[in-house]
Design a protein that fits this description.
By secondary structure, this protein is α/β, with parallel strands linked by helices. The chain has a single domain, classed as HUPs (Rossmann fold, 3-Layer(aba) Sandwich). It is 35% helix and 12% strand. The protein has a five-stranded parallel beta sheet, sandwiched between helices. Helix 2 links the parallel strand 2 and strand 3. The chain is globular. The termini are far apart.
Length: 231
Amino acid sequence: MLAHKKAVCLLSGGLDSATCLALAVRDGYDCYALSFDYGQRHRVELAAAARVAESLRAKEHRTATIDLRVFGGSALTADIAVPKHESAGQIGEGIPPTYVPARNTIFLSYALAWAEVLECSDIFIGVNAIDYSGYPDCRPEFIRAFENIANLATKAGVEGKTHVRIHTPLIELSKAGIVKLAAELKLDFALTHSCYDPNNDGRACGHCDSCLLRLKGFDEAGIIDPISYAK
């Protein structure tokens, strides 16, 4: 087990990022959780992120405020409808309108900045390339490319004080595999939020891509999802 190494962990409040944080904590990292208020329509996830960070005893939890609505181009940051389906099997091919342009590149850049200040080499992100919605910035080749850039772009990297590693422990897991791992880590599923288009009281819609993939994962894992759904 790693003893008291620092790590910056990106934390949206969703199932994947919460599992990723729980894994980093289990592996002995002192975790500095980083969330983003980026103008997303599902800002209720920020409350979930705070709950998860407190539950998992992150050393610190910060929320960076940026406004990606200035660019729009996504159903999460502009007046574009979030796709809804009756089942996960109806989720289409290609990159969906919920893709936020350059989001993970921006988030990882912020994580890199904080990691440099903390003099830490480890960054965790809960991207997944199996049961996901086709986002280009969730692919292993993107992560490898960013890691290379990270070690060229910082003072700490140039001076040899750090060698940044981007950890993606969920990248090859199915959603069911992530649910099972989270259960093993004793993550409180009720603290998390995954929905792209929650209703006014914060309940998940049950029909967006994120809800359907989450429900599919719980069903295949044989575990009951404890969160409340509007439908």
